[in-house]
Design a protein that fits this description.
about 5% strand; mainly alpha; 2 strands; two-stranded antiparallel sheet; 3 helical TM bundles of succinate and fumarate reductases; globular
């Protein structure tokens, strides 16, 4: 067995991959949010449709997109493996658990939060990514150039109060997931210092509030504008 396979099969290696894939997905959230905020530009969807066309035609973005799906899959797989390992390591639960004294609610429920977010992701991909790639979309013309009108299907989805509520609620779960995962990833990578760890936790808390809040703001604004 090579050192690579040994590392990947060890608990430490699995935690390391969880941290690395998690940090990549955190970076992806920032980039994805920057693109989605163009939905709020009052131009009838022109900026967003041009952005979507650029993302779909750029070879580098296509490679990153495939990598993103791979990292999501790895993140899920290693989360399951680590969860199973933790259960085997502690088969008998304590009679009295005082979790709140030494851990947060988010840290004790990362598996549940991750499962909910995976369900959200599958619904989200089916409603948008699948439709853009394989569905029959309307078109829009800007400066004599025809574009897929991705804005139209987004606007239609965000006019549905049930989907908007589901989206906003999922962003709440994302906030809890990030509130633990952000700092935990840095700690796993060994960036755990008495001087810098409090700052990392504060930045992580701010990130876990700001990014999901901005994501949730988009469907809310578009719903009330429709």
């Amino acid at each position: 067995m090579s050192w690579v396979s040994k590392t990947l099969s060890s608990t430490l290696g699995q935690k390391l991959l969880m941290a690395l894939t998690g940090l990549f997905l955190i970076l992806f959230l920032v980039v994805h949010l920057a693109g989605n905020l163009q939905l709020l530009i009052p131009d009838g969807g022109e900026a967003f449709n041009k952005y979507a066309a650029t993302m779909a035609s750029n070879p580098f973005i296509k490679v990153v997109s495939i990598g993103n799906f791979v990292f999501i899959l790895l993140h899920v797989v290693y989360a399951i493996l680590l969860s199973r390992h933790n259960k085997k390591s502690r088969p008998v639960q304590y009679a009295k658990v005082k979790g709140s004294t030494n851990s947060t609610w988010a840290s004790r429920n990362m598996g549940i939060l991750g499962t909910i977010l995976l369900i959200f992701l599958l619904v989200h991909l089916r409603g948008f990514y699948y439709e853009v790639k394989f569905g029959s979309l309307p078109t829009a013309v800007y400066d004599g150039v025809e574009y897929k009108n991705v804005f139209a299907i987004v606007s239609a989805s965000y006019s549905n109060i049930l989907y908007v509520a589901f989206y906003v609620l999922s962003m709440g779960f994302l906030a809890f997931h990030l509130s633990h995962g952000f700092a935990s990833a840095f700690q796993t990578l060994g960036l755990n210092h008495v001087k810098y760890s409090p700052l990392i936790r504060k930045v992580g808390l701010g990130f876990s509030i700001l990014i999901p809040a901005l994501f949730a703001l988009i469907p809310l604004v578009m719903f009330f504008q429709n």
